[in-house]
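@channel sequence for tomorrow's demo:
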Amino acid sequence: MLYMDGISLSKIKEELKKTLEGKRINRIFKNNEYTISLHFGKIELLFSCIPALALCYISKNKEQAILDISSSLISNLRKHLMNAMLTDIEQLGFDRILAFHFSRINELGEIKKYKIYFECLGKLSNVIFTDEEDKVLDTLKKFHISENIDRTLFLGETYSRPKYDKKILPTELNKDKFDNLLASGNVFSNEIEGVGKYLNNIKSFEEFTNILNSPVKAKIYFKDKKIKLATVLDLDFKDYDEVKEFSSYDEMINFYIDYEHTTTSYMLLKNRLESFLEKKLKKLNKILTLIKKDIEDSETMESIKEKGDILASVLYNVKKGMNSVKAYDFYNNEEIEIELDSLISPKENLDRIYKKYNKVKRGLTNAIRRDKEIREEISYIESTLLFIESSTDVSSLREIEEELIKLNYIKSLHNKKKTKLKKEVKYGLIEGEDYLILYGRNNLENDNLTFKISEKNDYWFHVKDIPSSHIILKATKLTDELIVKAAQVSAYYSKANLGEKVTVDYTLRKNVSKPNGAKPGFVIYVSQKSVVVEKVELDKI
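structure tokens (generated this afternoon):
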């Protein structure tokens, strides 16, 4: 995780000042709905208000715009800040709020001053543009009163710091106060402004002042090759097996974003696709529950038909006006009483029973058909969610987005000027001395790989009963070792958890077929064999 508290931000502020102070803005962009970037020559300062990545930093990687949205904020920033000089960066107390001060000479030769307040506050993060008197000119996010009842940010309103609890400033803390807090057992993050959870375990005032006064100590701690903690503070962190040090915050954060695949464009597109599909999946599961109930209700179908057959056998004894008739149930060898509608004829009573039977029978047929269709659609969505989760860049997510647009799952949010994706459908490749293992990275690649790239005598692998990539093994000789290797690749690119044992089916490619009208990635296969393998990291296969 990326650790960002008020003390961390105070150190980042100093680094940004050293790099940007005295430089002029020459370009301003809105990369997506939650991020904007200010360009100072070749230096790009990016403000991200995505809740999971709320921070500002000097970006080394060019963002790929995923949404083409006009913005009043960008228009206002370009109107007032083009060629403006950054004169100062200040922090409001030790809160996670930075104020960027700008100065510009307008067409009349007047010096105009402006501020950008960047509030690094999780889901309430925002970029607020004001004049020198702190009158709000525009904001990146427009919060509804129900989202943030403690604060409004109307245009023309004087900017005010978000509601906060009064705490001790770190610079006002002395040894006696610190020792008293330590002795009382109070949580430091509740008492000291700018202190986050990783500073709650500090044991001495000397340790606290060392963290507060030391320069940026940018480090990323890893455990099992996964990031456990990224920080600019000199923390006594122990739960790691590897640590990487950086010369600056910007170097660390750009590495972190590359390593975690968390560029703002990537995160927004991933979250948008996942959010839509998860809602769709929830809706389909609800429909499936209703269909299951309809099928269960249809279990009375045969008893309705039996009732009609029994009534037909005694229909000659039934007269109009009768409320019921006793008859012998030759299905269950007992006498029963059948209720009748006295207002209609005996034949109409019989027809009503058979009509009810036929209606329930048709309902069961439709329910079974819909059950099959819904289950196939759920399988498709689950596999698509798997591919979204395993995607590592915007380009691969865009391919999945295009697939969903073609299937009318989502509407395109891009304008006509968007960059078109290459029509070539690719696949993943693992190459050995005497074999090739090919794998699909989305449903279209799965179809392409299975039915266009592979040959009929290649071997096809898929994890049984759960979403996974289609795996093609090309080898001159099929050995037990290759079967396990291809099965492990199939397990790795599946919904299974690391360490979980799964059953992988495999068969000749010629035994795999696609039903007419089936969704991308959906196939049926026969003559399969199975092998049980454990899902492990790809580099261990």
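heads up for whoever presents: The CA atoms of residues 279 and 285 lie 10 Å apart.
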